[in-house]
């Protein structure tokens, strides 16, 4: 088994389980709360954060635990991953995300494919996705340098918070957005709203790269030994 294949398996399993968690916890949250959206969102956010913590902890050493095309694209821009590997990462993430939604549907005995009907349109939703993705990528970029040993907790904590402080409930992931257009459950999104969400996510990711530059540069400077006069 080649190193690249192991990485792709890790990305596949991580993204698959992440989407099954996002959709499945939404279904369970609505069922147990008898339709209370607030309780369902709490269950959804908590389950997603917990899954992220576990998945990043165990799969991060294998593939970097991207599970997100935006993360992979930023890694490519920064020269942390080659173009060929990045393309395979993204293709794997997209396929795994879709299969994760189908898996969640199967576990709850729902129709496997059900085009989303949850309206998530408008400038506020797009802004929310840009902000959510900006914060996620900034957390990852700075976390790698400042607190690499705490990446799982940092990302999980940020996503849990972003579920609550953004109007869109923080998709922050193009693969997640596309896959969630195939469900009519609590986690769903209309297919016609996907393009705007993805565009906003990519803008947010790019903005995070720019914002991180002076911060990372300042850190590098602070690590230089002081001159002895």
Structure report:
- The chain is mainly alpha-helical and 229 residues long.
- It has a single domain, classed as Glycerol uptake facilitator protein, CATH 1.20.1080.
- The chain has eight helices and no strands.
Per-chain topology:
Blueprint: H1 3-32, H2 37-63, H3 69-77, H4 83-107, H5 123-146, H6 151-165, H7 174-180, H8 194-223
Helix pairs in contact: 1-2, 1-4, 2-6, 3-4, 4-7, 5-6, 5-8
What brief labels describe this structure?
Glycerol uptake facilitator protein; about 230 residues; 8 helices; mainly alpha; disordered C terminus
Q: Count the beta strands.
A: 0
Described by strand count, sense and barrel closure, the largest sheet is: none
Helix-strand topology string: HHHHHHHH
Q: What is Rg?
A: 18 Å
Q: Beta fraction of the residues?
A: under 5%
Low-confidence stretches: 219-229
Question: Tell me, what's the shape?
Answer: globular
So, the CATH homologous superfamily? Glycerol uptake facilitator protein
Distance between the termini: 54 Å
User: Structural class of the secondary elements?
Assistant: mainly alpha
**How many domain units?**
1
At the first level of CATH, the class is Mainly Alpha
Q: How many individual helices?
A: 8
User: Can you give the helix content as a percent range?
Assistant: over 70%
Mean pLDDT: 94
CATH architecture level-2 label: Up-down Bundle
* CATH fold assignment: Glycerol uptake facilitator protein
